[in-house]
Amino acid sequence: MADDTSFDLIVIGAGPGGYVAAIRAAQLGLRTACVEKRGTLGGTCLNIGCIPSKALLHSSHVFDAATSGFDRIGVKLGKVDLDLAAMMSNKDKVVTDLTKGIEFLFKKNKVTWLRGKAELVSAREVKVTGDGGEARTYTATNIMIASGSDVARLPGVEIDEKRIVSSTGALALGKVPKHLVVIGGGYIGLEMGSVWRRLGAEVTVIEFLDTILPAMDEDVAKQMQRALTKQGFTFRLGTKVLTAKSSDKGVTLRVAPSKGGDGEELSCDVVLVAIGRVPYTHGLELKAAGVALDDRGRIKTDAHFHTNVPGIYAIGDVIAGPMLAHKAEDEGAVCAEIIAGQSGHVNYDAIPGVVYTHPEAAAVGKTEAELKKAGVDYRVGKFPMSANSRARTNDETEGFVKILADAGTDRVLGVHVVGADAGTLIAELALAIEFGASSEDIARTSHAHPTLNEAVKEAALAVDARPIHI
Predict the structure, then answer these.
(1) pLDDT class of 166 with cuts at 50, 70, 90
(2) pLDDT for the residue 125
(3) How far apart are CA 100 and CA 121, in angstroms?
(4) How far apart are CA 191 and CA 355, in angstroms?
(5) All domains in the chain, ordered by first residue
(6) DSSP strand pairing (400-406 vs 378-384)
(7) Residue 396 — very low, low, confident or very high, per pLDDT cuts 50/70/90?
């Protein structure tokens, strides 16, 4: 009979990186356990992040279209009412169904779920403490840390998940706020701002920098700000939040120019703090095992996810790189393969990022600013969605596809998309970068007509200054 306290691999964290790593390791024949303190599997992404936010984004988009968009295409509706409770219930059902699906996959692949909070006792031992305080120590030949990330806090702004909320609280508001202030103009802030704007809230975005989506290409950021402004967003760029005081009546913020100047007060009903995320290593007792951190609190790893301690690995949001669920998934699968004796790597230039607003924004590879800074000679091909036939038939003409290719080799270096289904369109371009494709390779690939993907082909043709439809 197998020892139920000894494993080939213990994965700490059952988010996208952790659960994928555990399943892949089990597929490769490793006796695998996964520690998760939450009552459901799936981590932040499935429980309080990616999945519930996308459910609300879809529902709010349908509601917004029904109240203000269907008439343009000849669909006349009567009075449209919002049932926020039903919308939230649908969101919760989606989450429940998917988290239960992971439980099924664990059982199918014989992954042991160790329920409780993990703590490293040594380089080979993990103590798991359950909700009732009961603790048990397990041993493993290998340990993989996939504990994810937590909400970044802002000094002077205390999150109470009632009036001043994180993304978690923003997913569960009991009513539509009259005025929502979003601190942070990144992915999360714009997505959650879109949900509540569509449902009737006035939305003000306060961003410390002079641009929203600062990690994305400048053309994308400008287009997205124009699009969201037309939808009713108000942007306060180059502005910092000094304090936020909550009361029964609402929240009063003290704001000032980022570069210095007089401050002013701003009142609202709810504040969403969305300034990013930080690695979650609290309570893991990494020092007990001698695991080293960098100056940003991330676990140091090499190219194969080894920490400085033999047998201990780390992936996902706790290590360097973009905090994206699919990045963590790729790292988890590859790390499991390396532990099992195989080889593998993650091409970080081919990891896409998507903002699920409407229109969507998506990118993979390098931005123009990055190429200029690196001194790379490149060419640009850009095609507007307004010239794409399917975008016109769908009444979705906002946006563009922009391809950056090496001027000498024509190899695709980066692609930036704004438009409907940009998050789907970007997959073709991620594949192109993964396989080292040229813009001519994309241009000479047949794209079905009429599809939004034809804009990708036209942008590739535009790199060589030969687009057909503009």
Answers:
(1) very high
(2) 97
(3) 30
(4) 7
(5) 6-149+279-346 (3.50.50.60), 164-275 (3.50.50.60), 350-463 (3.30.390.30)
(6) antiparallel
(7) very high
Measure the CA–CA gap between 129 and 264, rounded to whole angstroms. Answer: 48
**Contact yes or no for 267/256 (Cβ under 8 A):** no
Q: pLDDT-derived band of residue 1, with 50, 70 and 90 as boundaries?
A: very low
Is the whole-model pTM more than 0.70? yes
Torsion on CA atoms 383, 388, 391, 395, rounded to nearest 10 = 100
What is the rounded distance in angstroms from the CA atom of residue 289 to the CA atom of residue 119?
10
- pLDDT more than 90, % of the chain: 96
pLDDT value of residue 223: 98
Beta pairing class for 270-273 and 164-165: parallel
When pLDDT is cut at 50, 70 and 90, the band that residue 2 belongs to is low
Average pLDDT over residues 428-441: 98
* Mean pLDDT for the chain overall: 97
Residue 449 designated active-site? yes
* Residue in 304, 345, 449, 469 annotated catalytic: 449
**Of 391, 356, 57, which is closest to residue 213 (Cα–Cα)?**
356
How remote is the C-alpha of 53 from its chain's centroid?
A: 10
Tell me the per-residue pLDDT of 299-326, one tens digit each, with 9 for 90 and over.
Answer: 999 999 999 999 999 999 999 999 999 9
Find the length of the chain. Answer: 470
β 412-419/135-145 pair status: unpaired
Question: Please, which residues bridge with residue 402 across strands?
Answer: 382, 416
DSSP bridge partners of 405: 379, 412
Give 178's Cβ-side CA count (13 Å radius). 6
